[in-house]
């Protein structure tokens, strides 16, 4: 049931951030989010940006929908927060953008 909730949250239809570059790579906002997982254990992606602001849920959902990240586990204290990790597809997408 928990996995189903996490994957339902990845519905990109509601995402205002679901606009990758024309070549299929992540857009600049998506790259900023995804690149933070490159140096983290297990590819863990952050909940907050460099300025301490929460990443917009639509951006997180769009990255999941494109397969660049995946839900890692649910947070029982904050069930609306998606804790994600970078996927191999996400690493490849970033590899061509640096």
Q: What tags apply to this protein structure?
A:
98 residues, alpha+beta, 2 strands, 33% helix, disordered N terminus
Molecular structure report:
The protein is built from 4 helices and 2 strands. A hairpin with a 7-residue loop joins strand 1 (69-74) and strand 2 (82-86). It is an alpha+beta fold. It is globular. It has helices spanning 2-8, 28-35, 57-65, 88-95, and strands spanning 69-74, 82-86. Helix 2 (28-35) crosses helix 3. The longest helix has 9 residues, at 57-65.
Structure described in brief:
By secondary structure, the protein is an alpha+beta fold. The protein contains 4 helices and 2 strands.
Which secondary structure elements does this structure contain, and how are they paired or packed?
Blueprint: H1 2-8, H2 28-35, H3 57-65, E1 69-74, E2 82-86, H4 88-95
Antiparallel strand pairs: 1-2
Helix pairs in contact: 2-3
Return the structural class. alpha+beta
Ends apart, CA distance between termini:
38 Å
| Overall radius of gyration | 12 Å
What does the main sheet amount to? 2 strands, antiparallel
Instruction: Give the tally of β-strands.
Output: 2
Let me know the average pLDDT. 81
Low-confidence stretches: 1-17
Number of distinct helices? 4
Adjacency order of strands in the biggest sheet: 1-2
Which descriptor suits the 3D outline?
A: globular
Give the DSSP E fraction (strand runs of 2 or more residues): 5-15%
What pattern of helices and strands is seen along the backbone? HHHEEH
Helix content: 25-40%
């Amino acid at each position: 049931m928990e996995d189903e909730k996490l994957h339902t949250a990845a519905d990109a239809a509601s995402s205002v951030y679901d606009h990758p570059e024309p070549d299929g790579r992540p857009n600049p906002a998506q790259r900023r989010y995804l690149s933070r997982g490159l140096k983290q254990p297990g590819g863990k992606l952050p909940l907050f940006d460099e300025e301490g602001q929460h990443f917009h849920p639509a951006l997180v959902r769009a990255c999941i929908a494109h397969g660049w990240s995946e839900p890692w586990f649910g947070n029982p204290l904050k069930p609306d927060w998606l804790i994600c990790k970078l996927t191999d597809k996400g690493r490849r997408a970033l590899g061509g953008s640096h």
